[in-house]
């Protein structure tokens, strides 16, 4: 569950007086999500999401995340818009936590996306990349190779408990990535966590993107690779070529990939799979069971790493 901090009705009502959102009618905690405490608010002017930022989000990064949402929304990307308080501030304090109100997006996230949904996601990702190009703030990717290394140093000794041979396998990957990771590809603002739980649909139409709390500056093609990992594998870990084709065609209908970006996809997809394997592995090994952070299975991403390692040509992802 993702309500780590309780909020009393009286203090919430008083907090909302600072925002142009009308009077509180009702509110409830939202179970989905892992990082922060989220509440759905109904007020006399509509619905909103209240987020209390817990310790895994750096407070110093909030102006970047919230400024980015405002910028993208202004550019026509459907994403939540932070609500500005009467005194001009966006970040308040509630129950001792940094707290923000954002607009509510209609739609549902999907458990079983189809190729049509994948095409929509590809298109939306490319639109996000273009829309972010003139955003004035920057944020280095805390989960680029140096960040992976820190996670790996903390988890390596117990990695073989999760999958025998994993320590040696990942050590070899690190050696490869530290020598050969592509650097000269187009880069800018990326979402960095555009998984199905962060994309809303109304039927087959994409209605919005949420959860910009990993957004940063990095390679655009790395974000594409993350989406291939998150959207195009089936439950049995097979890659669905039809979905890959659809996602890549959707992306390229808005922002064509260069030949260099295409050639780098297998390594980027392998790196992205390692990144999600590592955050999952770290939580798996360090967070107590029954604790507050929902643990996700790292082995799903070990399977993806192996798939990408065996790729001979980027056409195997469905590139035309
Ligand atoms: N603007 C919004 N409109 C409607 N629902 C929202 C909005 N923002 C968040 N939600 C709901 O709250 C849930 C949690 O949000 P979010 O993914 O941002 O949380 P999180 O704790 O950062 O989780 P994680 O990082 O694991 O994805 C979402 O799954 C969605 O149900
Ligand atoms: N999308 C991440 C969770 C945190 O955003 C994962 O599936 O591991």
TrEMBL record:
Pathway where this protein functions: Amino-acid biosynthesis; L-threonine biosynthesis; L-threonine from L-aspartate: step 4/5
UniProt KW keywords: Amino-acid biosynthesis, ATP-binding, Kinase, Nucleotide-binding, Threonine biosynthesis, Transferase
Entries under Gene3D superfamilies matching the protein: 3.90.1200.10, Phosphorylase Kinase, domain 1
SUPFAM superfamilies membership: Protein kinase-like (PK-like)
EC number, as in UniProt: 2.7.1.39
Enzymatic class: transferase
CDD domains per the UniProt record, alphabetical: HomoserineK_II (cd05153)
Aminoglycoside phosphotransferase domain segment(s): 27-257
Reaction catalysis annotation: L-homoserine + ATP = O-phospho-L-homoserine + ADP + H(+)
Biological process terms in GO annotation: threonine biosynthetic process
Residues spanning the signal sequence: none
MF GO annotations: ATP binding; homoserine kinase activity
Transmembrane segments: none
InterPro entries per the UniProt record, alphabetical: Aminoglycoside_PTrfase, Homoserine_kinase_II, Kinase-like_dom_sf, Pseudomonas-type_ThrB
UniProt xrefs under HAMAP family: Homoser_kinase_2
Family of this protein: Belongs to the pseudomonas-type ThrB family.
Protein name per the record: Homoserine kinase
Gene symbol of the encoding locus: thrB
